[in-house]
Amino acid sequence: RRIYPSLGPSPRGTVHGPRDGVTRTFWVAAVHMPSLPGSSEEKLLQKAFRKYGKALGKRPVIYSALVALACLGFSAAAWWEPLLVSTERVIKPLGFVTQWSAIGSATQENAKVWNAEPGHQDWQPKVVTTIVTGKGGNDVLSGSSLDELFDLYRRWVDLSVDLGGGKTFTTWDLCARGNLVDIPNMCDTFETTTLAASTTTTSTKTRTTSTVTSTTTTTGTTTSTQVPGTVPYGWVVYSATIVTATTTEVEDNATTTATTTSTTRTVRSCAPSPFMPCLMVSPFQCFREQNWLHHESYQTLDPYAAELDELMQPYADRPAFRELNDSAIRHHLTRLRQDSRPTDGEAPGRSRGCHWFTSQGFFPVDMWAGKPQWNGDTSKPLNDDEAAWANQQADQAEQSEPEPLLSGVDGLRLLLYLDGSKRIQERIRLTKPHLADKALIQRATRALSLEWQKLVMEQNPNFERIEAANIEPWEYLEEALPSDPDTTYKFALFAAGGGVLVFLMYPLLLLDRKHPQASRGCIGIQGFLVIWLSMLSASSLFMLSGFRPTLLTMFLLPFLGWALGIDHAFVLARHFSALGAEYLAVETGSEVLAELLASAGPGMALGLVGNCAAFALGIAVPVPAIQELCIGCLFLVTCNFFLMTNVFAPLLVLEARRVKSLQPDLHPAVCLCQRRAIKRLKKQDEGINSIEMERPSKKLQKDVKERAELRFLRQRYAKRLLTRPMRAVAVVLFSALVGISTWLRGGRRIGYDPEDFLHGSSSAHDAIQLLFEKFSIFPSALCFRNVDVAANQKEMLELYKAVTSSGFAMEAPFANHLSTMYRMLEHTRLNSSWAGKLADAATVAEERASVLSAMAEEASLNRTNAMPDFAPLGTGVSDAESFTITLLQLLSMPMDSSKAWQPERMNGSRVSLYLDFAGINQMTWGPSPNSTASDVPRIRFSSMPFFTAGLNTDEHYLDAVKNGLDAVKASTLKDSAFIYGSIFSYWEVLSELEPHMSAVVTSFIIGIAIGAVVCLDFDVVSILVACLSCYMLVVTVWGFAVLWAKLNAFFIAGLLVCMGLSIESVAHIVAGFAYARGSVQERLGHALAMALPASLAASCGVIVTLVPLAVFAPLFHLKYVLGMLALHSVLIILSNCLILPGLLAALAPPVQWAMRPVWIIVTVCRRRWRARTAPETDENAWQRFLKGDS
After folding, report:
1. pLDDT digits over 699-752, tens only?
2. Are 703 and 662 in contact (CB under 8 A)?
3. Which end of the chain, C or N, has fewer beta carbons within 10 A?
4. What's the gap between Cα 924 and its chain centre?
5. Cα 1092-1093-1099 angle, rounded to 5 deg
6. pTM of the model
7. Which helix (H) or strand (E) holds 760?
8. Residue 797 near residue 787 (C-beta atoms within 8 A)
């Protein structure tokens, strides 16, 4: 009663001194000790903690030291190899789709198939993207703006990187220019080709005639295209003698004509093979100036391109934009596509644009223009005559100056392709064998991308009419995103800085400069060391269990660890201080630790069991990233609980010894002050000591009295909460938060803002923002695995057509590999005479069909499977072996330069080049079914590239995914086909995440209920309030966070961590209420006094930890880490101060009244059971005990 003079009568307890056996009696507050030590009123969980505390308290220092050393030992074993031997093993190398798609789902299986194919790793080009906008509202399509951009654009081909040791790569070594091998010299003579004679028979009679014609022509020409700033290549081409002889002999009713043509060409210059143009998507492909960016060898070849290959389109025939006015420039930028694919019904941005050096490559306006604006009715289909007229109008635009079809664009995009390492390696192995190393090529590609990035940043301030921003290839850009280890470590460093800040501030809350026995600064330092050890131990167990931390676990788990540790440390320190200096002075360390764990343990156990149950159920959600995050949380909460009870709690015995011996707090901030205060006190009262605390000095009253703020919580605030207005406010606030959050969740947005991953000061930030806002076109692929290609050609093409016409998709710049194969068969097997026959039969449908059938037969194509879009003459043979042989023959690339570069009619072949552009080298070949050693291989995996386009809103992305998947499901090849793309697959995963999120929240509530039932001894009010409060916290964070964040994987991960923090923040208050005895006010006051300060300290600790990150973190971290955790911490403060205790005050009386009959029945049954099983009562036992009889 002297300890708490304001309290009413309290039960009487007897304790014994540690050594002298003297019995001392004092009064202990009932609300402080919920039940007498060892009494029958203690719950089973309290008894278990008391027994464990007694056993632990016998050798507390030795036991805690052994546990700490064991944790450090296996932590060193877990982190030794990853940190010092192989740092790549620290972070799990899984892609986003693999981590966040459901286990066993089609999305995950497709991602595994795609990532397992070597063609995508070694042959896939990388794209450098440069975004250009007008400065100050200037038109980027004007001649002056294009001229300024061209000065930057042309520097791409002049780049070079030196890797040291004489290893220098140029743009021509690394750019994507096809698979033709670079040959050191071309001194060979082209072979003479003789065409076979043709024979015809007629029924006319003529007189016999004989005519011999001989023509000899010899021409020597030297063609040199002067490129500004470069040395002309000077390739010399000699046209050889052409001899034509025709002889006609006539017999009766017969005419025989024999024609022999002999042609010979030679190349007299020993120059290397020409470099094909680098793949660069830009509006300059429409103009002659693009040829200036080609290698000197191709510049010389360009005027002869059409003669060498009818598929090639010379740049010499294109206009120069510097010679055109602005209107004419726009006309020439919107030329119709000139290939076999029809343009009927296509949007102008997809059917109009610029050709590459070949008709097989076409770059539509949508690829290089941002949100183009069109004049007139551009949706009207165009027939052949209208298309020819439209192109004629474009050719004559500079004279007639009609209104251009393209009225304006929001920006321009340059796509600069760097080739795959395997293709580069094969291409340069003859000319530069010392550079043909895969690892070296990958380093050079990365370095060249950085050189261009540096050049764009240097030149951008010098532009007057344009602004340029560059985006590195996505493979390299990841270094600036959260998936980069360096960024992750920097994030962890700043988080550790926040932890150090909390470490310095937290003990200050427990300091008392003038009162040594009330100061707890030293145990604050000890608590933080234990928190660090718990996080280290959890990560080590995670590693030793065979897991590797994902980036989200490295981001989020430290915050959960801080909050759990601070909460537990404050709770233990609060319960320790509540024992009182008198109790600490007269009791043994074993009894102190037993009483401490008996009072604080149930709340800690509730947090442990609730978290473990929730996260264990979360593991059942079939998403690898969620599973691993839940496993990491399980390790963390378990290690935190274990180390707090087995390391930190035993260390409090040392604090009890300090209090008993009247020693100062060893915290450096107060140690000297307290030492002087103790000396002065002992001089004034020499009789004072730690044992005789029944007569404490008045100056030490604060040591044994409860602090004023805690008395306020225990008495006045608890009483105020029981009033009707406060209970009404708590219920209304709870209902309002849940209701508003539910309403806000209905307006959730699925997706993400890619620019948020980067700092606003980053050079790529604005470029990425413009890319997704104005250039919403991204590459994807329709993939086929284990499909009999020969037997399913038409089905594959029909599926490709369905996908590319699904509303948010368009064909790739190059035709798919099947259409390219058919085109190459026509190109190599049909001579020019067929064009005349087809023109003669154009007006008669029957004759045209007959000619087309004959052409298909000549080209070995199946006319019955003809498709106007992709197979005008038909598909290839359906026999698998014949199909493969035909394709391999087309793929065979002549290594002799004389055969590779002589005209097609002279057996030259660049077919493999066009097939390579179509992605044929990214296929995977495998043995045929029931294969033998002599069998030809089969195509095991193939893909048809396309673009997702027109994606202006988040809903468009989801619609594009839905339309594409619906097209695949409707196909007969649905079990063997899938769509994959970096953007497409990302949004496919996002569209599947929301059901998993609901499952995670459901498992969370079930886990809380399980933990509450187990740990709260079936206290209905506490169980109900625990579930309601945690649900309110999670749902409110979910609802309000959608105001600034979008629903995605990072959102779910942040919400998972908030779930763990919610359980921990609620556990101690409801456990304190459940285990306290007395009236509702006394129980509520006890719960608030014991747990509320600790909960507030934990929430404030999280907020303080987030402060340093706000300086470093990009907007992404502010939205999904700092924002959500800060919001949750604020909600915890509001809930624990008002809503949670208000719900306890509101629900306790009616629930107790409703449960009273049940408890009466249970009590009667329990008493009867005890009466039957209890031994006989010894009425004289108490009297003998008072006399000293044990």
Report:
1. 444 444 456 667 788 888 888 888 989 999 999 999 999 999 999 988 778 887
2. no
3. C
4. 27
5. 90
6. 0.75
7. none
8. no
